[in-house]
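Hi F.,

I've been meaning to write this up properly since the lab meeting, where we talked about keeping a consistent format for the predictions we share between groups. The idea is simple: the sequence comes first, exactly as it goes in, then the structure tokens exactly as they come out, then a line or two of notes. No screenshots and no reformatting. I'm using this chain as the first example so we have something concrete to point to.
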Amino acid sequence: MTPQIILYIIIGITIVSYLFSQLLDLLNLKFYRKDIPEEVRVFYDQEKYQRSIEYNRTQTRFSFLTSGISFAASLLMLSLGGFGWIDHLLRPFISNPTLLALSYFGIIFLASDLLTLPFQLYSTFVIEEKFGFNKTTIKIFFTDKLKGYILGALIGGALLSLLIFSVNQIGPTFWIWFGVIASSFVLFMNMFYTSLILPLFNKLTPLPEGELKKAIQQFTQKVKFPLDNIFVIDGSKRSKKANAFFSGIGKKKKIVLY
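Output, unedited:
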């Protein structure tokens, strides 16, 4: 298989993936109902439901623009040899293969994020503000960005370095050993995300004793969910939206509310 054929396959996969994603969003738009479904009428009135539909439609239509620009940029980079140009630009200055790969993917990641930065700002400070959700300040926005860059460089850089080491030292079976390492990392992050990563962005406090905590504990016992603790994070400094998630493995699962 020639490099040209591989390039065409990659371009084809990129196009099909983009079109499929857009089709799903279009179907979601089409099937938004004007009236409240019977199942949720006890939770929403008609006005709040319509507001929710309008918000989802606005975000979906905006995603058409952002994903379209990202898709066009990726297609241009593939078709015009932009990724190869970055590689040729770096090689005269960096001889170490690991450092070269880290620099290469770092530039691509940073360029991709900067390309979508105006849309991230618009989504946060215009759309979210319009619907009364936004509480993020410019300072918080860019502080989160900086923390994300540092964290991405540390974790992504470590995993990429391990991948390059596996390819160079192990050979054709590198994918087995790297797969084991990557799977172990995913398990580790699942177990310790709330205690290691989340505190870098939010303050966690245990949920105080009360009716809410009691109700959650009773429900988790009913469904045999091995609950270890319940936390509340200060997500309200970024958004007025309420949400929850759980993390952990085995008997050390945690629920986080915000």
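Notes:
The radius of gyration is 23 Å.
The CA atoms of residues 87 and 104 lie 7 Å apart.

If this format works for you, I'll send the rest the same way.

G.
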